[in-house]
């Protein structure tokens, strides 16, 4: 039975929105009137032809990573429990906490009832379900293991979100310290330094070179702060424009892999994503070449993505996966060794899972080490800047005291 999205007004004049099942739009309106609602908009949940108001409401709406993981987990549980796909989607529609999720699931269910596969139904919503997500769903449908594939996919999404959250939280404190330090230095240069130093400038006393330099810097900050902001914005725009081009972006990504400290973080994060995705794809029975291509598309470093393309060529020529990845000199040796062991035992999926878990723990350790190193360095840098400002203020006082004596 098709699903229809509706907007109506109840007897109290309150707006009501939702999704209901009906044979036709006319039948849906009848159901709404039976419930004491006055229908304003009734249209197929999967319809692309929506009014201007609906388009405005849809602007900026998207499934969050958390909502995507919950939706995937719920659908996997229902399918593993034995519910047919359309009934499982109907249950998710009723349980949805947000109107957008309710409309989204109803639209997917309408496509499935219309004869489309789940992967094709998800393809109508690329903002909510990326290519790799749909590829895994298609593989699960092809092998008849959709519930298990969705369960592993939910594990992957939850693990990725947890890892990202740990990295963000680890760098939050250094970021806050940097912002506070920048604010304090700006306040000292724009307000404190001029108030104190101008007293000595009016006495016609020869000021120390450090004080003169600090006064010049203070004047520049006070009078040309808008130029500084414009300059920073222009630099950011130019950098983004340059990195948007394929050649410079590839060169930057190659340099990033060799950068001190940051290079290992980038390499580790991409390795975790690659190994996890490849494990899910191989477990779903996806051919190795297609699995490598899909897993490579999840990498956000173009240099590593190019190395995967080279590995695909070698695997197509008959080289083993472990040797093909080892020849790239990009991925950690542990990953290559575990894949080689999996090839020898015939269980590559398990070894890829172990590699992903090990790299995730190593990435967390490196992140904590880097942040623990940044925190004292930031404090020292802030202390050094404040010390210079204090010296610029104190030196004229010391010189004046010597002159009085």
N to C succession of SSEs: EEHEHHHHHHHHHHHHHHHH
CATH superfamily annotation of the largest domain: Type II secretion system (T2SS), domain F
- CATH C-level class of the largest domain is Mainly Alpha
CATH third-tier fold name of the largest domain = Receptor-associated Protein
Task: Estimate what percentage of residues fall within beta strands.
Answer: 5-15%
* Terminal Cα span: 98 Å
Number of strands: 3
Order of neighbouring strands in the sheet with most strands: 2-1-3
What is the correct CATH architecture of the largest domain? Up-down Bundle
Overall mean pLDDT stands at 82
Largest sheet: 3 strands, antiparallel
Q: What Rg do the Cα atoms give?
A: 30 Å
Spans of at least 5 consecutive residues with low confidence: 47-60
Number of helices: 17
Query: What class would the helix/strand composition place it in?
Result: mainly alpha
**Morphology:** flat
Q: How many individual domains?
A: 3
Textual characterization of the structure:
Belongs to the GSP F family. This is Type II secretion system protein GspF. It holds the Pfam family T2SSF. The chain crosses the membrane at residues 167-193, 223-243, 373-398. Residues 72-194, 274-396 form the Type II secretion system protein GspF domain. There is one protein chain. The protein has 405 residues and is mainly alpha-helical. It folds into three domains: 3-56; 64-158, Receptor-associated Protein (Up-down Bundle); 178-404, Type II secretion system (T2SS), domain F (Receptor-associated Protein), CATH 1.20.81. It is built from 17 helices and three strands. It has helices at 25-34, 52-58, 65-80, 85-95, 99-113, 118-122, 131-143, 146-201, 209-223, 225-243, 246-258, 262-283, 288-296, 302-316, 321-326, 333-345, 348-404, and strands at 3-9, 15-21, 38-44. It has a three-stranded antiparallel beta sheet with strand order 2-1-3, with helices on both faces. A hairpin with a 5-residue loop joins strand 1 and strand 2. Helix 11 (246-258) packs across helix 12 (262-283). The longest helix is centred in the C-terminal third of the chain and has 57 residues, at 348-404. The termini are far apart. The model is unreliable at 47-60 (pLDDT under 50).
């Amino acid at each position: 039975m098709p699903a229809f999205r509706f907007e109506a007004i109840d007897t109290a004049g309150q707006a009501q929105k939702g999704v209901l099942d009906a044979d036709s739009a006319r039948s849906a309106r009848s159901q709404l009137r039976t419930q004491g609602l006055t229908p304003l908009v009734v249209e197929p949940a999967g319809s692309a032809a929506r009014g201007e108001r609906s388009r405005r409401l849809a602007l900026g709406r998207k499934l969050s990573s958390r909502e995507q993981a919950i939706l995937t987990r719920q659908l996997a549980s229902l399918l593993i429990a034995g519910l047919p796909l359309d009934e499982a989607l109907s249950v998710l529609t009723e349980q949805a906490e947000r109107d957008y999720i309710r409309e989204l699931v109803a639209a997917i269910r309408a496509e499935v009832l219309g004869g489309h596969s789940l992967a094709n139904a998800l393809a109508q919503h690329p903002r909510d379900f990326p290519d790799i997500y749909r590829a895994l769903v298609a593989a699960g449908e092809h092998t008849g293991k959709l519930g298990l594939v969705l369960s592993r996919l939910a594990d992957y999404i939850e693990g990725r979100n947890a890892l990202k959250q740990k990295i963000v939280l680890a760098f939050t404190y250094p970021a806050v310290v940097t912002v506070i330090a920048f604010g304090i230095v700006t306040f000292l240069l724009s307000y404190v330094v001029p108030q104190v130093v101008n007293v000595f400038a009016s006495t016609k006393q020869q000021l120390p070179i450090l004080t003169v330099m600090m006064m010049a810097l203070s004047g520049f900050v006070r009078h040309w702060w808008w130029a500084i902001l414009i300059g920073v914005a222009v630099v950011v725009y130019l950098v983004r424009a340059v990195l948007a081009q394929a050649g410079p972006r590839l060169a930057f990504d190659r340099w990033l892999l060799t950068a001190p400290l940051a290079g290992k973080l980038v390499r580790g994060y991409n390795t975790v994503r690659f190994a996890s995705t490849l494990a899910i794809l191989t477990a779903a029975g996806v051919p190795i070449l297609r699995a490598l291509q899909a897993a490579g598309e999840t990498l956000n470093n173009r240099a590593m993505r190019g190395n995967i393309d080279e590995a695909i060529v070698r695997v197509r020529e008959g080289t083993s996966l472990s040797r093909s990845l080892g020849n790239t000199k990009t991925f950690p040796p542990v990953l290559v060794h575990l894949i080689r062991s999996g090839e020898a035992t015939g269980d590559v999926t398990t070894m890829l899972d172990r590699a992903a878990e090990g790299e995730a723990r190593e990435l967390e350790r490196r992140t904590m080490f880097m942040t623990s190193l940044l925190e004292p360095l930031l404090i020292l840098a802030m202390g050094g800047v404040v010390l210079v400002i204090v010296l610029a203020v104190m030196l004229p006082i010391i010189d004046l005291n010597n002159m009085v004596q």
